[in-house]
Amino acid sequence: MSWQSSKRLAGVAVALLVAGCSAAYGLMSATGPAASAPRTHATARKTLATLGSATPAAGEAGVSHAARHHPAAAHRGSGLTGGSAAGFHPLLGMYATGMPGSYQPVQQFAAAVGKEPRIVLFYSGFGEQFPVAFAQQAYAHGATPLDQIEPTGISIAQIAAGGYDAYLKSYADEIRAYGHRVIVGFAHEMNGSWYSWGWTHVSASTWVTAWRRVVTDFRSQHATNVTWLWTISRVLDQGPVQSFWPGASYVNWVGIDGYFTGPQDTFSNVFLRMMSVVHQFTNDPILISESAIGQRAGQARMIPNLLSGVITYHLLGLVWFDVAQSGGLTQQDWRLEGHPAALAAFRQADRGFA
């Protein structure tokens, strides 16, 4: 996840998936306020995957161009249904401490907000196996797992050179055997400096080669139930975002991570500038792949602003990071539970979500 990711075992993400490009994307080109200072995150894992890609490997099913660029169509192509084309609804997702070891955090969150999340985020590291039991429980509850693969302590150059092909193909086999949709991300927020795979540690060309290697390994195993989520931080004053773009044939959805940390933060000044940058080189659907509002930002007051922004700009959805942290503006109490006014605001504002 984002800077909040540092609490990989203490992180929560709510994913609201609303797909595609529409006329609303035209508004994203407006110049918004400068992004706030980068936050320091650690390790968090998230994964969202759609079937196929713009250029599927031989024998793979693929999402059509129309499906890749229309919200309702993108959901249908990925097994995620948010509504009809005329009445599309973004999807709600989440992450909480204890996932994917247990599905109980998801159930507790669902009980609190009065709605089953449609996306459940978790983070995985190299050497781990795909959490099939967790994924099966997600499927039974109508949710799609979002797996953010974090190569902590792993050489990105070695991944790019094929040194981890055996592990990646084995992991792809496990996801293929699961048999249902999985959203998968790899080495997220690479445009920031806080991760070992970030822009000050790994060259963009090496990172891109590694991403393509991961996707190619999965395709070689015919894991066509994966939707590839390319995830960046909303912070603009760090690495050059476009340099890390792997190309349309290797990405299905774009994820943007960003938080409301202070009273000045709104959907516009947190997300719109980065959305405008992204749409200079791709029209792939956008998911707010990790987000939350801190108590210092006026959580209850600003929840309607965040959720309505997802709807207004026809995004795939939003993933809420439902974790209590402490340590300054970048590590606040993001949880909804224990904050009655915030819960009431969330229950009201998420009515537009599937």
Write a short abstract of this structure.
The chain is built from ten helices and nine strands. It has an eight-stranded parallel beta barrel, surrounded by five helices.
Task: Please explain how this structure is put together.
Helices cover 29% and strands 14% of the residues. It is of the alpha/beta class and 354 residues long. It has a single domain, classed as TIM Barrel, CATH 3.20.20.80. An eight-stranded parallel β-barrel has the order 2-3-4-5-6-7-8-9, surrounded by five helices.
What would the keywords be for this entry?
29% helix; TIM Barrel; 10 helices; disordered N terminus; 354 residues; single chain; alpha/beta; 8-stranded parallel barrel
Q: How would the global form be characterised?
A: globular
CATH architectural category:
Alpha-Beta Barrel
Biggest pleated sheet: 8 strands, parallel, barrel
Unreliable runs: 1-73
How large is the radius of gyration?
18 Å
Helices and strands in order:
Elements: E1 15-17, H1 65-68, H2 71-78, E2 91-95, H3 104-113, E3 119-125, H4 132-140, E4 144-150, H5 156-160, H6 165-178, E5 182-186, H7 204-220, E6 226-233, E7 253-257, H8 267-278, E8 286-291, H9 299-312, E9 317-321, H10 340-349
Parallel strand pairs: 2-3, 2-9, 3-4, 4-5, 5-6, 6-7, 7-8, 8-9
Antiparallel strand pairs: 1-9
